[in-house]
Amino acid sequence: MARDRTPSRSRAGVLAAATAALALAGSQAVAAGPSAAVAGLPRGHDVSSHQKHVDWAAVRSRGARFVYVKATESTDYRNPYFARQYGGARRAGLIRGAYHFALPDRSSGARQAAFFVRHGGAWRADGRTLPPALDIEYNPYDAHHKCYGLSRTRMVRWIRSFSDEIKRETGRRPAIYTTTHWWKACTGNSRAFAANHALWIASHGTPDPGSLPGGWRHWTFWQYGIKGGLPGDQNLFNGSPGRLRAFARGR
Prior knowledge:
The chain is α/β, with parallel strands linked by helices. The protein has 7 helices and 9 strands. The two termini are 27 Å apart. The model is unreliable at 7-31 (pLDDT under 50).
């Protein structure tokens, strides 16, 4: 998903290439799109500071039923538009949740989780709030260290530390956003989280999410493209609208 910081000059070329790759993925996603088997599932999207001002009533009229809003990154960044985006989505009738962009090389999982909860990552069983989400993926600031310089064992421990703190503070395990490729490369395809963490899988330009990582048998959210009819990235929920509400309540 989105990084909100400005990269250093030394990384600008690497990130320009990454941006071009994402643009290509987006064009493929528009061309392919979800298959008919999943196209009728509840639609949603995710936004960050890049979207700034969203017309939430219009978004809902175009079919959005849920949204994830970026709240934080590491322990020193807060989305300046978060409160407006999060509140606006709620008032328009969308089920909404917050996500945290992980930088595991900056501080511990527990510290980043605590920062996240303090600045938007809380949860309550009101049927309107999605579980906090951990966005853990390729390092956008250093293409040579896609796993942030952590071994697979240390990465699994970092994710566990983040999850344990979220559970301690909110009463619920976070959803995990990732790609199958990153999860295999950076956690050794760990199966430690599949039993009690919802999977938010990113797979663009394909008719379905494809193979899932780490023992997950089912996906909960699928980010299928970076361009579409809704602001930000395009997502589906793997269930009925009623199931989406039940999931938000923690069932």
